[in-house]
Please model this.
Amino acid sequence: MDVVVIGAGQAGLSSAYHLARAGIGHVVLDHAPRPGGAWQFRWPSLTYGKVHGMHSLPGMELAGADPLRPSSEVIGEYFGAYEGRFGLRVRRPVDVSAVREGADGRLLAESSAGTWSARALINATGTWDRPFWPRYAGQETFRGRQLHTADYPGPQEFAGARVIVVGGGTSAVQHLLEISRVAAETTWVTRRPPVFRDGFGEAEGRAAVALVDERVRRGLAPQSVVSVTGLPLNEAVRAGLESGVLERRPVFARITPTGAVWADGSRVDADVILWATGFRAAVDHLSPLHLREPGGGIRVEGTRAVRDERVHLVGYGPSASTIGANRAGGAAVREIRRLLARERVGGPAA
Model:
């Protein structure tokens, strides 16, 4: 193939759409069992109306969706219909284990469906497969249940329980608002005081993306766009603040067998610790290409990996939002077209 696309979420489908329009031969490999990207794994109580920003894929609007339906169903069906309309033949489930240097300037993508040889690669693997679990003193001694947002089943399993929710993002807030209705007690813990924003304009969005972009240009591990935009202040959040559900405590000093203790000696007993502590970029399969910088990230210009112009990362860093992934897919394909054109006339391939 000319191009291998790894991942069939928003970033991968956007890239495949632009590749198809450009007439560039490609294959899309996705490890998930069905259409929907990471959305198919979201908990049932995350209805479409609660989704924090969902932009339609290029060429096909997502309109008229029932806000009360689970987002996993709405977006899964939409992605499936999108693949069908534009003939995006996604191969799934296919796990890509490594991408290596091949012969004649090609890249080799080793997968559970065999090895694919390509002149360029679009990596659109997102973050869902790499949940981040922070480590705290005494964590291994806790006798209750510990789980991450990636395994969150919805609020019903926390009925009557004392729950500590760790994390300062949108998922943590959504978990707290749900769990507090059925739990015996909830405690919210964050590293930094949360910032709530009543409205978020285009200028603020551009500034937030610029901050994330600066990090990846320096080769640092990317922050999510959401992490620098603050938390949306809607009616449900206002109610949570007024009721005390969203009263935040700083991070504990250590975890105990029965809960947590703070530096001032105060304690909270808990049956469950829910880690809503985010995700990291799922790029370990690119390790054989040695793209990482000393700062821990992959340095990119636009979507192109600085260390290897054949590799594009879409949905990474500043393009990790749904609208950013759409734009980045088109940008990556434009650069790949130029790369392939140079190869055809005998120019440098990498």
